[in-house]
Amino acid sequence: DIEALNEDHLGRGVESASKLSLECTHAIERTLKQRAMSVNLHPEIEQVCRFHLHTLCTSHVQPGAELECLQDHYRDIDKECQAIVDKYTIIEARNPQLHPVIIGACTNLIERRCGQESEVEDGSGVMECLIRHKIEHPQGTQGSMNNKCRTVLEHWQILSLEDWRFSFGFKHSCKDDIRKYCFNPRPKKKLEVVGCLVAIISKDTMMEEKQRVKKACRDEIKFELLQKHSSIKLDPVLAEACNTELAMLCTKKDQAEDGGLECLKNMKPNDLSVKCRTELFQEEKEEAIDNQVDFALMRGCKREIKEHCDEEDPQNIIKCLTDFSDESNFAGKCRDIIQKRISQRMQDYRLNPILEKACRKDITKLCGDIIIEYKDERSFLEGKVVSCLKQKAIQNQELLTDACRTEIVSSLRDSSHLVEADPALERTCPVSIARCRTSQDMDSRVKISECLREMFKEQRLQDNDECRIQVALIVETVQMDIQLDPILHTACAVDLVKFCRNREHKNGGLFACLAEINQHHTFSLEPECNSLMSKRMEMLTLAVQVAPLGSAQDIYHGVVDSPTLLIILILFFGAVFGFGLCFGRFSKKLHSEEKNR
User: Fold this and answer.
1) Tens of pLDDT along 1-11?
2) Which residues touch 278 (CB under 8 Å, ≥6 apart)?
3) What is the number of other CB atoms lying within 10 angstroms of the CB of residue 185?
4) 439: pLDDT confidence band, cut at 50, 70 and 90?
5) How far is the C-alpha of 550 from the C-alpha of 423, rounded, in Å?
6) What residues have CB less than 8 Å from 587, skipping those under 6 apart?
7) What does the alpha-carbon distance between residue 543 and residue 156 come to, in Å, rounded to a whole number?
8) What distance in Å separates the CA atoms of residue 103 and residue 111, rounded to the nearest whole number?
């Protein structure tokens, strides 16, 4: 019996092996080599890995199956066998035509979609072509690969994580940078190498220094990160850290496409363990630095990106998409993804690289106590720094540098209709928010925000005093920018054009203009705008009592108490008027503009 003899020969010990004659031993070796050749196994692999082939891979008899079996058990085989598996895996990585399993499963797709790459002599672009096709064509959609090809390709992607040399394009483009920057100790696993290079790229980007990592390598890193973010199976560290959360919080449907990545991102930070939250945060930081590695965004907004943001800087794609998200032909799925990403960025300023860069000095100066309290990298800030900057801007916009003030207003504008983008509000007003969600006609996030304003005005908020303070801050943000109050901005669109077209948009100039007209006896706003402005001034009156911030009090007293103090309001909102401008000259200007129309 050849298998029984082979078992003795392979290593039940020297004593057992010595029982076989030399002639019998040679015959067994010839048989094994012939078998290896019949299944496309290189004799060198058969010779070095014979024991493991017999103990782990006896049922793998199809061409290429035995090497694939050794690759599957890569961590279980000895170092000598690992070395020979490395050697032939690197060869396969360069040219998939030498990988019989991939060729057998994906031949038709290679011919249809990767013909140009396969015609190149070494076939080095075929593997990347197949992986890109897999990423761009979800299972079950038109043009998607068959299940067999998808399974084989995913197996290869998982295997390539074991050694950075198993990805030919990455190895070829990044080997010099890896040798130069990744040592002591020099990592072997691909994600460790990618992490090393990403850290260097991120630092150079944030410090606005010349990129040390070559462009060709940066392009390959982007491709590797896109793969990693496409499925949790390709991020084993995150998968292990969040194993419990995936099992308890994410359904099979949630895990069908990406293994549960988006499901985890949708969870509240407090619902995740520290270990899971830390690893997930790193994933989100990578996507924030380069939006093009955000798998869900690139797939869900493919048409919108191509149409509106194709040449946008990778950091600005989400911002660019946000600017077009109200258009009628904008896909609802893409809009949902953008709103999720905006909410994530408001949770932690480190997920908003543009804001972090613009406000670096302001954060240190004005919110340094928060940074000291949460100096541990694993700490999740839960919106505390963004909230600090917002409060400082409401208190006195001059406290912030111009760049920071612009970015904080922009971020608040993008998130003004998203309750979930305000962690402090969600944390302090859960009952009131729940009541608004269940109220009639609460079919949009904007209406929920308006519901909270109305409850605040009527003193019907059902949470504690901290909730009243948070809603008061929302009311007061209108002084920074009228677009932070979407309903007011929409209702007063005509009046803004009619009366305020020459007023400065920033620093609350448009709201100040409407406030002036609202108090004016000669001119009047459109009925809807007039009614809403009266409500907003009433809310502002109450807000400055609940959250007494100096600048809001200036607005209130300047507009409501005495029309002669309008100059205080105008100065506060940054509209440049001469100190000698009097109320009569302002009225005359309005009369003149109205007559010219």
Assistant:
1) 444 444 444 44
2) 241, 377, 378
3) 7
4) confident
5) 24
6) 520, 522
7) 60
8) 10
pTM over 0.70: yes
> Using H for helix, E for strand and C for coil, what is the string for 513-548?
HHHHHHHCCCCCCCHHHHHHHHHHHHHHHHHHHHCC
Q: Token digits for 373?
A: 């309290």
The two structure tokens encoding residue 580? 């000698």
3-class secondary structure, 591: helix
DSSP string computed for 335-396 = HHHHHHHHHHHHH-GGG-HHHHHHTHHHHHHHSHHHHHHT-STT---TTHHHHHHHHHHHH-
| Dist CA 412 CA 484 (whole Å) | 7
Cα(340)–Cα(77) distance, integer angstroms: 44
At 446-470, the pLDDT tens digits run: 788 899 999 999 999 999 999 999 9
Number of other CB atoms surrounding residue 34 within 10 Å: 11
- The pLDDT of residue 20 is 60
Stronger pLDDT, 155 or 550, i.e. the higher one: 155
Question: How far is Cα of residue 367 from the mean position of the Cα atoms in its chain?
Answer: 25
d(CA 264, CA 273): 11
